[in-house]
Amino acid sequence: MSHLDPPLLAQTERPSLGELFKAFLIVSISGFGGALPWARRMIVDQRRWMTAEEFNEAFALAQFLPGPNLVNFSVVFGLRFGGPAGAAIALIGLMGPPLIIVMILAVLYAQFGEIEILGRILKGITAAAAGLLIAVTVKMAAPLFLKRWNSAPVIALLAFFCVAIMAFPLPWVFVVLAPVSVGLAWFKR
Amino acid sequence: MNDSPLTTLFIYFATLSLFAMGGANSAIPEMHRVAVGTMHWMTDRQFGDMFAISQLSPGPNVIIVTLIGYHVAGIAGGAVATIAMCGPTCFLAFLVAGVWDRFKDAPWRIAIQAGLVPVSLGLIAASAFVLARVADSNIYAAAITAATAVMAFATRINPLWLFAVGGLLGLSGWL
Question: Does the pTM exceed 0.90?
Fold first, then answer.
């Protein structure tokens, strides 16, 4: 089995609160240009706490709640693996370090007001981050497209088309597509 | 009626968060409208700089609200804005996730879950597309994106190395 095929069963062992905190802390401080690829890498590829499909499901739930996606995800994940304390620990691991870093950056900016060099470095990192997000999208989509044909890939492509190409407002796309998709899933049970 | 800036910040961001479907990035135009236009907390230029700093910082992009709060009311403002933006939705996520896990085998839950995943994937793909379009202002940047995508998909290399290469090429002024 190549590393591109995550295990069919995730480990049954539950992470300790310390492991949860460390995992979300690493995800957080690695997460330039979005933390989703890092969260999936940590949880599916490295720690094997979830299968590829379980991760997709948990992230989809977090995405459809209002508010920041990965922040919601940390609560959903932390609660499932460590109860209320786990939810709090995962959230603190995710939000604590960037909070401190961004405050330091804000103070530096107020002192020097010169972020041009950092901006140039960031341009390169953002280009790489876009590539990383593309790779993780393909990995996440694989279970959907490798299954026997059903409506799911069509829905996914339609959502992509509406938001990326047509630039329709996201809430509208969600309000129209999600019920259709859930309805289709209900009838083909 | 308490009209201290901390109260204003809290009410504004707590309300915004509950309507921020699709994460922090989709709420940025609305934050801009209020912070620059309605409330006159900052200039256009300052808002743009804050967006850049929030991108420079690792972690979730929602961190821009910390900067806005900090600008308005110092450290306490930064803390209040962040808690307001994350608190109510985290509580909601906490309640929903609890119910969700309890009804793991219920048919309605399985159908909703199966229905949400493809929409979610389409939206993730769309944000990858949008991010690439913004980042790839020239052929070199596009080459970094393409090379990173292939390396991250096909190898086990730690993506931080790919970020380091991108950052160095950016520093060199090629992008």
Answer: no
